[in-house]
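Can you give me the bound-state structure? Components:
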Amino acid sequence: MSEYMAVQTVITRYCDAVTRRDWAALADLFAPDATWDVIGHVTFHFAGADVVPGIRGIVESTGSLVQINTPALIEIDGDRATARSTIYELGTDKEKAHRFEEPGLYEDVLTKIGGKWKFSARRFTILHFQMDKISP
Amino acid sequence: MKNFTIALAVTALLSVGALTAPALANSDKKSEMAQIADRLAIQDLLSSYSAAVTRHDFPAIGPLFTADATWEVIGAPQKFAFKGAEIGPGIKAAVEVAADLVQINTPALIQINGDTATAQSTVHEYGDMADRSARAAATGTYEDVLKKVDGKWKFQSRVFTMRQLWILPYPPKTDAKK
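Here's the bound-state model for the whole set.
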């Protein structure tokens, strides 16, 4: 697999793991000292060992959450890479009384550690948030 | 004489090394290029499927599948399962309950093993019902098995697990809570 494809695979694995709520798969994608930030109508910051439990807490506060990711724009420089991708999140609240849509932009820094690409930093900027009551 | 023989042997070994190292590197490179080409072809197949559904280009769907392929939807209110020649017409009937249907596919996670492969991808579908009485939005994940037939990758099986389905009022409301 080319380096470019390997980086794209890490980004896609992230969305797949969130959608499937596969927390072990998610943990494999981050460097030990990684950071994860959300900027928008809500803000979050997690670092290191707090990243995966932090994401898990957010995702499990929803009734369902599916992440649709676009192909990323990737720049590789040796063992470091940056990537930008747009995602579209669709979900419900815990009670499944409301549904929401949340497009946003991920800006990533990745590092190759032991031959595998990992996220060193992920920053998600929420571009829009809309929540509607689900009609019975 | 002995030293001369050893020197000759070392020279010979070095020559063999010099010849085989680039040969191996070239072979590795060729194999990596073939892997990349296979991955691109498989991603192209998945994207061609979603493009054909979005464009209602139903004649383009059948050729994407092997002759004995299966296509199945699970987790939806209605069960769909088609095989072989039924797949193209079956998907056409399923899609045409909507006046228009857009299928957005994500980059797939692909595993290749010789002439077979598996792929996982997420899709988002939305569209208006044929009578414009409602708008439907759905998400789900595709689990695919693929096979290389006469040099071309085809679907051997597609299983779509529906994860979310909403039937929304039509025309869309504008009083969304932000």
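A couple of observations. Helices of chain A lie at 3-20, 23-27, 51-59. Chain A touches chain B at residues 1-2, 5, 8-9, 11-13, 15-16, 19-20, 64, 66-71, 88, 90-92, 99, 129-135 (CB under 8 Å).
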